[in-house]
Amino acid sequence: MRTRQINISVVICSFILGLVLMIQLTAAAEEAETGKDCGPAEKYFPKSQVESIYGKKISYTILIKAGAINPAGTKESANCRIFFDSSGPLSRSDNLATSYVIYNSDSSAISAAAKPDNPNNVQMDKVADINIGDRGTLWVVGAGSPLPTYMMQIHKGPLLLGVLYWDSNNRSKAEDLLRGAVQDSKSSPTPSPNKSVQPSASKIPETKAPVITSITRSGTKSSDFPAGIFSNFTPDGQALYKYYYGYATIRGKNLSGSVLSSDNKGNLAGDPAIEFRKIESYDNGKMLIAQIVVKTFAKEGTTNIIATDYNGQSKYPVTITITGTQYLQRLYKDKPIFFGGDWADKAPNSNITNLIQAINKGLLTINHPSYQKLFIIPYIFEADAWNDFAETRFCGDSASRGFRAAGCASPGDSIIYQQADLSDLDWLSQTILHESAHKLHFYNLGKYFPIPSRPSGFQARIKTLSDPEVAYCLYIPVKILDGRFYWFGDNDSLRKPRCGFIYQYGASGVYRNLKNNDYYEHVATLTQARVFAGDLFNYPEAKNNPAYGKEINLLKEYGFVK
Q1: Which of 9, 98, 126, 543 is deepest in the core (most CB within 10 A)?
Q2: How many CB atoms within 10 Å of residue 221?
């Protein structure tokens, strides 16, 4: 840094202490210093803070030495002109000036803030009141001139602070500088006026960064926030979620003026998943209450809430929670699986973990080219939703059938519908395979509409094996009592093989006259039992009847089982 005598001939603006309002002046032999910091003027406007707010490096500064132009009634003053671009014009630039004065009394600072000194009667127009410190005002000087100048000044007790700028778009930056300066003024000591203050020895005051000690949902002790809340069901039963709107209570210190954000970027675009609105400060900056908006794509788990001001930032962890429905949707987002109804409990939990295991177990059984070519889409319903509407809508009326269905499939689409009964999740795994076997059967009949298919020889061959068994079977037709299936003449509903069928349900819709026997359930139950209920093949009927072995070999040949 170097000191010299300079002539300053610029269009500038003044606070009471030294920058004369928008006039052409020559300050011959005015004592000033050029350099890259503002020496004592950095007491309230540190270089690092200015550069942080403006997002660019300072090119050079012109410092009016402290005490050089103190008017009567003041203890201390300094101002600094800051240039980011030494070659560019003031208009449409980010160049600015900062200034402070410490008066002997609060009333003097109040008067100065209310009506700036204007000895040359330059045109000044009040633009707005500024709610920073005790009171503040924004003025425009020379509004009709080619180079209007904006002067924002506030006072805090006996301290008058000001920022001068030329680009009208920089109002928010000026406000940010003054907020930081007001906060610094609370603890910055006033140096003794009889000591020479050299710019090179200037000391940046200790900052007061915000500190968060707790965050809770307002009115609770919980620091959990949901990633959206249930809204409604689609016409086909999928749960829809909407953004969560609530209030958060943030406690700590130095929180006034803080900007709240989070590190939660829930989607691929990196959009903020959490927003804060209507932030209000209480208890001298020890508490903030803010509206919090948690979006449905917010990433679950630990998230840091961040309070930031120009002195620093503080992070505090909270937990973003999701429901079982959201957990399932996220886990299977890249797979063709739909979920109906709503698993409302926070997840993951044991029920959801067990459900996922059952789904994956079922999907593994159809991970075979013969099934994969069918593009099967499981549509899995939460039990209440299944019982309330899904079963009737997709599988028909249970009253007319005489039993409740755990799932169903049709040849017209690639979807298999099934219930997720948390009390018997192994049955869900079996149902995925059972209903998929129906799809493959339709395909071999040439009736599977989602993809082109022609009749294969499968149906003729299964009839060749099954018809002779049925024609002489004394246990057919099966009967339904209270939703259970019984072999004819047998009062025990325990599953057991008879007449080439692996258990009773496989013979439903089958008659000894052989007319209209499509064997849909026979094929599906045989497929299902081969994978999940091998013990049924140990019954003497299955062991001693060669039809069972021939049927299993046929299922293997056409890809129903491996």
Answers
A1: 98
A2: 7
Q: Which of 43, 57, 33, 19 lies closest to 149 in space, CA to CA?
A: 19
Residue 478 Cα to chain centre, angstroms: 55
Question: Quick one: average pLDDT of 341-355?
Answer: 97
**Strand runs labelled E in 239-347:** 239-242, 244-253, 259-262, 274-282, 287-294, 301-309, 312-323, 338-340, 346-347
Instruction: Name residue 41's beta-bridge partners.
Output: none
CB-CB contact of 391 with 398 (8 Å): yes
Please say whether the beta carbons of 247 and 256 come within 8 A. no
| Record: fold of 211-325 | Immunoglobulin-like (2.60.40)
Average pLDDT, the chain: 85
DSSP bridge partners of 4: 32
Cα–Cα distances (Å) from 298 to 228, 244, 523, in that order, read 8, 10, 45
Integer Cα distance of 459 and 448 in angstroms: 14
Domain boundaries, the chain: 2-201, 211-325, 349-444, 458-557
Q: Could you tell me the two tokens for 233?
A: 């069901």
Which one, of 278, 275, 318, 288, lies nearest residue 300 by Cα? Answer: 318
| Calpha distance 178→172 (Å, rounded) | 10
On the question of a cis peptide bond just before residue 378, with omega within 30 degrees of 0, the verdict is: no
Return the sign of the alpha-carbon dihedral for residues 218, 222, 223, 226: negative
| Tokens linked to 482 | 């209270």
Question: Which of 319, 311, 213 is closest to 274 using CA atoms?
Answer: 319
Q: For 501-530, how does the pLDDT look when each residue is reduced to its tens digit (9 = 90+)?
A: 999 999 999 999 998 899 999 999 999 999
Helix or strand or coil: residue 428? helix
Please give the Cα distance from 306 to 313 (Å, whole number): 7
Q: What is the pLDDT of residues 164-220, one digit of tens each?
A: 888 888 888 899 888 888 876 554 444 444 444 444 444 455 568 999 999 999 888
Report the greatest alpha carbon distance in the chain. 124
Q: Which residue has the tokens 């013969």?
A: 370
Identify the band that residue 288 occupies on the pLDDT scale cut at 50, 70 and 90: very high
State the pTM of this model: 0.64
Structure tokens at 224: 């959990």
Cα angle, residue 222 at apex, residues 216 and 224 outer, rounded to 5°: 90
Tens digit of pLDDT for each residue in 103-124? 888 888 888 777 776 656 667 8
Angle between helices 458-471 and 546-557 (to 10 degrees): 160
Q: Tell me the CA distances in angstroms from 517 to 168, 325, 432, 469, 489, one per residue in order.
A: 85, 40, 24, 12, 21
Q: What is the pLDDT of residue 64?
A: 67
Please tell me whether residue 21 adopts helix, strand or coil conformation: coil
User: Per the structure block, which two tokens stand in for 366?
Assistant: 């159809």
